Amino acid sequence: MHPLLHRPVVAAVERAVSADLGRVWSVAGFTDLTDRASHPAGIYRSPSLSVFAKLDPAGASQFAAEVRGLELLTRLSGVATPVPIAVVPVPGGAVLLTRAIAETPAAARTPDQWRSIGRVLGQVHLCHGPAFGLDFDGYFGPLRQDNRPMPSWSSFYAERRLLPCLRSAVDSGRLPPWLADGVERVAGRVPLLAGPEPRPTLLHGDAQQNNFLTASSGAVLLDACPYFGHPEVDLALLDYFEPVPGEVFDAYREVSPIDPGFWDRRELWRLFGYLAVIAVAGLTDFGRPYLGRIADAVARFR
């Protein structure tokens, strides 16, 4: 049985949604979305309101940070994010509930829907802060993300992103020592590789294309772990799992410029994400190819 369909979980969800609506709400059906998420996930169907849910066995802290991050993105930039309902403790962890959104799957997106992803990301990047980081931490996938502010982007990227993900990958036992040494050398060269110092820019934080839902009204941001950083990080993550059409970058440029040097630096900004994949999924068919991507990046930036 799907973990979101266990009777105590369903009962807790029905109580939470009923309390949010101020009337009785009950589950009439369920659509499993686990194959599209890093957590067990799905949509509880009801004639009056459908509810998206995902389960985290580790408890409520990650979901609380996610809700806070999405609220920050909406408050500062005005972008659309899912409407939260509750984070509900359940046997075996916690469930995040948001109002479900009718979407167009990635394979069926129109050119304008792809463009909406670029436009909304550019809208986020119009917001700036006083330093690199944020006043609360987040999660990049299941990995805790240290957002303690720093005044320099190159220091922040090396100390708060690259080296922590390197430690997680090494601790997993899935990263060969010679490759770990190469990443450490790259981390020491970040000040020489990072290009012009950017303004601290509001980021989605995990801007791979599946974290943008395309609805009839445009793109909706999902699964964010925001902080103030370099806009090139979000741009690099857009297609680090799979390609996106050029319309995404074209539409982004209508809102915010892309430095010509970005394309040479893109793998540097992806490197922390590659290490995170190894830490979390390095023994799987999905994860193993990322060792080669890390090796290529080390060779490029050594």
Please specify the SSE layout and strand pairing.
Blueprint (H helix, E strand, L loop, with lengths): L6 H15 L7 E4 L8 E5 L5 E6 L4 H17 L6 E7 L2 E7 L11 H14 L13 E3 L2 E3 L7 H19 L5 H17 L7 E3 L8 E4 L2 E4 L5 E3 L1 H7 L8 H10 L6 H20 L7 H13 L1
Antiparallel strand pairs: 1-2, 2-3, 3-5, 4-5, 6-7, 8-11, 9-10
Helix pairs in contact: 3-7, 4-5, 4-8, 5-9, 6-8, 8-9
Could you please say which CATH topology of the largest domain applies here? Aminoglycoside 3'-phosphotransferase, Chain: A, domain 2
CATH class division of the largest domain: Alpha Beta
User: Going by CATH, what is the homologous superfamily of the largest domain?
Assistant: Aminoglycoside phosphotransferase (APH), C-terminal lobe
CATH architectural label of the largest domain: Alpha-Beta Complex
> Low-confidence stretches at least 5 residues in length (pLDDT < 50)?
none
What level of helicity do the residues show? 40-55%
Strand adjacency order, main sheet: 1-2-3-5-4
How many DSSP-defined strands?
11
Taken from the alpha-carbon principal axes, the silhouette is globular
- Helix and strand succession? HEEEHEEHEEHHEEEEHHHH
Number of domains: 2
Residue-averaged pLDDT, rounded? 95
Radius of gyration equals: 20 Å
Structural class, by secondary structure, is alpha+beta
The quaternary structure here is single chain
Q: Could you tell me how far the N terminus lies from the C terminus, measured between alpha carbons in angstroms?
A: 49 Å
The main pleated sheet reads as: 5 strands, antiparallel
Number of helices: 9
Tell me the β content.
15-25%
